[in-house]
Amino acid sequence: MKLLQIVGVACLLLLFYGCAGTPSGANRLPADGASAATVRDSLRAKFILTMIDSTGKPQELDAVMFSVPGARYRMELTGPMGIGVASLLWTKDGWNMVFPTEKMYLHGNGYMVGMMNDKTFPLVPIHQVADFFDGILVPEGSQTLSEQDSAGFHVVKAKAPNGLNFSYGKKDGQISWLSSKGRNGGTEVLKFESFRTFEGVLTPETIIFEQDGKMFLKIKIRKVARKKPFSPGTWRLNIPKSYKSIEG
Length: 248
Known about the structure:
The protein is built from two helices and 16 strands. By secondary structure, it is mostly beta strands. Strands 9-10-11-12-13-14-15-1-2-3-4-5-6-16 form a 14-stranded mixed beta sheet. Strands 7-8 form a two-stranded antiparallel ribbon. The radius of gyration is 17 Å and the shape is globular.
C-alpha cells in the first residue's frame, strides 16, 4: 500500500460521522435503541477495514482503537502477518501519526486530523471516533430543516452546529444512511448496516463509505469493550529521530 493511501486510510478511519461533527465532542445524540445509561469513559474496539484501491482491488487491514472520549485516542493498523502499518495518538496537546514501514510521520494540532496540504483526504473531527462505536450517528444540536418520507425512508434534512448541511434516512427506527458534501464538493454517503448490540449499545456492525456512488471503504466491527483499564504504554508513541515528516 502506498504511503498516501495509508495516510488516507488512517484519516478515513477517523471520519465515521466527522462530516457533520462538532468540535467539542460534547454534543451527542444516541441512535435509536442505544443505551442512554452507558457510562462513556474508556472504550476499545477491534474491527476490519477494507479499502478499495484505485484499481478496484480490496485491501484488508486489522485495526484496534483505544478511546477516552474527548480526552485521548490511540489507533493501530496492521497488515498481513501482523506487520504494523500505521499508529495514531491524539491528545489535547497535539497528535502524531507514524508509518513504521516508510519510516515517516505526520504531526498536527487541534481536533481536526488530516493532511492540510492535500485535499485528496478529509480533515476530520477526532472526537467523533468513539461516537460511532457507541452507536451515536448524528450530532446533538443539529437543526432539522425538513422531513419527508421518500423511497421507503424517513428522510431528514438538517444543519449541524458547525453550519454544514446534511441529510439522513431512517428505516424501521434505525438510521440507515447519512449524506453530505465532501471536502472536494462531491457527495459522500455513509451506510449503516447490520445493527448489533455491543455490550448493551446498539451499533451498526458494518459501515460503508461511498463517494459519488462508489464504495471506497468498509468497516466491520468485531468487538467493543468498555470501562477497561489501558496500560500506560497505550498513551506513548515513539517517533525515532531517523523518521522524516511527510509534510516537510
